Amino acid sequence: MNVIVFGATGTTGSAVVKEALGRGHMVTGFVRTPSKMTLSHNNLLVFQGDVLNIASVREAVKGHDAVVVALGAGLKGTVRAQGTHHIITAMQENNIDRLIVQSSLGVGDSRDNLNFYWKYVMFGMLLRNAYEDHVLQEDYVKQSGLDWTIVRPGALTEGALTGGKYRHGFPSTDKTTALEISIADTAEFIVKQLVDHTYLYNTPGLSY
Questions:
Q1: pTM of the model
Q2: Ordered DSSP codes for 172-199
Q3: What is the C-alpha separation between 83 and 161, in angstroms, rounded?
Q4: CB–CB of 119/131 below 8 Å?
């Protein structure tokens, strides 16, 4: 497939680019700073742009089969939601349907998966702006009319790729997960969704 990844130099985005290239996809990495793209591959195109500039987003998505959104903004809000809104608009205008978005375990009904620390300390105080940004981002995606999947990983770690030895799609009532997953496993799961529609119009959580 011809895939564009937004947030391609970020923690998860760069891993998604690497995984997609390894699976034979053509990849466009949408980045603000091309020098941060350390990967080099014959099937990789780097597109410089700002996701908050809808004109550059419109130009970037043309000709792609699918879009992966792995936007990061640290503790700040607005970038994920507003950027995703621009991406959705550009996809609708260019008749591109498949959208995969990285959100976070704890958003929406998955809030019930969290323990006290993550629910009230991390997302309740320290990461409150980022959490609210993801909530609005998910709302935009669900209202888009596109063929979407929202992936909700737990806390991201530097652990190794396990080859699928992680849990996904567990119910919101499940409180037995580790609430963490490696960046590598998260990227693998996201890229698998390009050709697997098991979680179409769904919000699978990821964790060990």
A1: 0.93
A2: TT---S-SEEEHHHHHHHHHHTTT--TT
A3: 29
A4: no
Give the pLDDT confidence of 105-142 residue by residue, as tens digits: 989 888 878 876 677 676 766 677 888 888 999 999 99
Percent of the chain surpassing pLDDT 70: 94
Long-range contacts for 117-120 (Cβ within 8 Å, ≥24 apart)?
Answer: 118/155, 118/179
Structure tokens at 56: 């550059």
Q: Are strands 98-102 and 147-153 parallel, antiparallel or unpaired?
A: parallel
CATH homologous superfamily of 2-207 = NAD(P)-binding Rossmann-like Domain (3.40.50.720)
The pair of structure tokens assigned to 199 is 């979680």
At 88, give phi and psi (nearest 5°): -60, -45
The residues spanned by each domain of the chain are 2-207
∠ CA 71-44-8, nearest 5°, is 10
Instruction: Kindly tell me the burial class for residue 98, based on how many C-beta atoms sit within 10 Å of its own C-beta (0-12, 13-18, 19 or more).
Output: buried
